[in-house]
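FAQ: What does a ligand-bound record look like?

Like this one, built around zinc ion:
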Amino acid sequence: MTPEECKQVFALLSEYIDGELPADLCERIDRHLDACPPCIEFIESLRKSTELCKALSARESPGRLDHQARAELLAAYRRSALSRSAKRDQ
Ligand SMILES: [Zn+2]
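The answer part, i.e. the structure of the complex:
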């Protein structure tokens, strides 16, 4: 295995884990992983942290929605304030 190959694998790993890669690229990565223990270790830890992230964001989505709603309210408030001051300036 050459470091160059590892770099190419790393560049595609997140898409590989998400199943977004075309089959030929998946095969190339599978072949590389068969023969490259450091990459196997890396992909396992990445997969674990990806699953952790997904689990966390699923659990925290109500909080994030809350945050988004507040941001939208603020933006709407700012827009209406801006349009009011624009009217005043005319
Ligand atoms: Zn490798």
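Follow-up question: can I read anything off the structure? Yes, for example: The first helix runs from residue 3 to 17.
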